[in-house]
Amino acid sequence: MRAPSQGARGRPINAVAPSAGQDWDSERYARNARFVSTLGEDLLALLDARPGERILDLGCGDGVLTAKIAAAGANVLGIDASAAQIAAARRLGVEARTADAQALSFDPEFDAVFSNAALHWMKQPDAVIAGVRRALRPGGRFVAEMGGHGNVGAVRTALGAALARRGIDAGLHDPWYFPTVEDYRGRLQAGGFVVETISDFARPTVLPGAMVDWLETFAGAFLAAVNPNERRAVLAETAAALEPSLKNADGSWWVDYVRLRFHAVKPAGGS
Ligand SMILES: C[S@@+](CC[C@H](N)C(=O)[O-])C[C@H]1O[C@@H](n2cnc3c(N)ncnc32)[C@H](O)[C@@H]1O
Fold this sequence. Notes:
alpha/beta, single chain, Rossmann fold, binds S-adenosylmethionine, 7 strands
């Protein structure tokens, strides 16, 4: 049976607006989260973009990977819900536009759809998968990596405890959807894809800065649920709770990432 937090197929995971309170400040993202696109680079090998192909990058962020796809000779379009991220992507010279990946309206015009570290911010996965299928030409591929089941589990637990101490149910504000392999495979298949490969793996990741920087970059939805006067205290309490497990002896911090990666294909006979 599916855990309630993962939702039933065809319905949103919960009724909260996705990523409400999450501010994608592109400069802060570049400073605190460059490792996201750097670690996503080997996904480009799985995508295997070829010159002349038309490729859609879902949740392209500040466009660093989109630009690498373009450098392979492909004709790539990045979309992202954040206007600030799209502005940063355009500064890199990539074609990019603001759009919600949960409401795609493309015709079958892409040879491939790519996504790195974005699908877990989208709590309507079936709507994403349906839109991707419509956007792909028959035989086109969907290649992506996202947070998998258990991703940032220690951080999520510590944030939840800090909010609970203030009488706030963190589950009502949680912006993340971290599916199991079985869950996402089932959704892809139900959405008309043939799943070529899908797997998850742990990726413990050392941060470029402090835990508080990571929280300010990625945990805006939780912090927005807290009285503004309390936010610094929530950050400090969360970092203190995580220190014994996620702070290294040399003072650096790491995060307990789990990734889910897949390569799925729209059948050649599909419309
Ligand atoms: C962690 S960033 C990853 C960015 C980029 N793919 C990379 O590898 O650096 C997640 C991105 O997903 C975008 N995003 C979240 N929900 C979205 C949605 N519904 N539609 C489009 N983009 C979305 C965010 O705005 C953010 O830029």
